[in-house]
Amino acid sequence: MTAKVREEQNGGAATSSVSPPVGSSVKDSPAVERALARSKLYLLLSWSYLYPEDDEFLDYLQSGELVEDGRAALNSLKAALSTPIDQETEEVLQGIADHFDEVENWISAEGVNWDMQDLRDEHRRVFSNVIALDCPPYETLFGNDHVFGQSYVMGDIAGFYSAFGVQLSQDIHERLDHLSVELEFLHFLAYKESYALCHDGPEKLKTVVEAEKKFVKEHVGRWVPLFSGMLKKKAEYGFYKLIADLTAQWVAFEIAYLGVTPQPYSETDYRPANFVSPEGISFECGAQDKGNELSLLMDEVGAQNYLDKEKPESGQSGSA
Fold first, then answer.
1. DSSP-derived 3-state class of residue 93
2. Cα-based distances in Å from 240 to 83, 229, 244, 257
3. Cα 228 from Cα 207, distance rounded (Å)
4. Which of 132, 156, 235, 302 could form a disulfide with 240 if both were Cys (CB 3.0 to 4.6 A apart)?
5. Is 273 helix (H, G, I), strand (E, B) or coil?
6. What is the chain's alpha carbon radius of gyration, rounded to the nearest angstrom?
7. Could you give the CA distance from residue 233 to residue 251 in angstroms, rounded to a whole number?
8. 287-301, pLDDT tens digit by residue?
9. Over 50: is that where the pLDDT of 305 sits?
10. Prior bond to 84 cis, omega within 30?
11. In terms of Cα–Cα distance, which of 191, 217, 1 is closest to 96?
């Protein structure tokens, strides 16, 4: 169930029944509360997907603070939305609240007894030590069946980060297109929206809100719905299955809230990048030598195994 989106012909843009105001007065405290609440919810999800390097996140989870902070942000968001809230929006918000209840129940029944190794083992079970092709938390593995298509998408993501002066921390050993990184970027943008409402004026506010809309429409809103379904299927049970449910519901709400219409990937669009030689020809140039940059990229995205399977057993051999 997704929040209701109302399409209007207004310069070709879609608007939502709960869409954020652009150019709101600094006195519009509900707008500030909405931005801060959304920022917090993005951050909680971002933390949940990172590999647990230390016990900080586990302590946060076991103490009940993650659920407590999530509920507080959700209640603040609901109170600050324009009233009356339509039924579908009410249902999606209730669905998110129910998922926090499920996380709380899991903590009480199982998670409270976990130590760091248990959480790490669960992360490895679901995501493995290498890129898990059955639920990869990397955007560029969706909708790009060629390694060069992945490079284009990665460049676009990097452009968003650069435009707002942010870069990966050296403490985070992940790629730019990892789900945790993209969610934290949206956390940053929503927080920046709250600051712009109070201090920067309508022009800078518009820039931030448009960036949120574009990033959700062109990136998160396209691949995360499919990824969430894949993660639920892979995890089957436990913490990451619950986080997959929560993520799917939250992204559905955000798509409606921002009034955007992404073109989501379907299962048939999920094709790990592949390099296919012309029929009957196998190339033996340095591009496939071990240690070559292209070979390393193909190994990273899981394409090398596919290449090995698809090499013709016989045929003309050429060199570049």
1. helix
2. 34, 12, 6, 25
3. 29
4. 235
5. coil
6. 22
7. 18
8. 333 333 333 333 444
9. no
10. yes
11. 1
Report which of residues 182 and 270 the model is more confident about: 182
Rounded CA separation 136/224 (Å): 10
The stretches of the chain forming alpha helices (DSSP H) are 29-49, 56-62, 65-80, 87-109, 116-127, 147-163, 179-195, 202-215, 221-235, 239-258, 293-300, 303-310
Whose tokens are 């007894």? That residue is: 113
Amino acid residing at 179: L
pTM of the complete model: 0.77
Q: Domains of the chain, with CATH numbers?
A: 5-268 (1.10.3480.10), 281-318 (no CATH)
Which residues 6+ apart lie within 8 Å of 76 measured at CB?
33, 36, 37
Q: Is the dihedral of CA 115, 116, 119, 125 positive or negative?
A: negative
Alpha-carbon distance 99 to 95, whole Å? 6
Are the C-beta atoms of residues 46 and 184 closer than 8 Å to each other?
Answer: yes
- Sorted by sequence, the CB contacts under 8 Å of residue 43 that are 6+ apart come out as 183, 184, 187
Q: Residue 320: what residue type?
A: A
- Cα–Cα dist 269/144, whole Å: 8
Q: What letter represents residue 136's amino acid?
A: P
CA pair distance 34, 209, nearest whole angstrom: 13
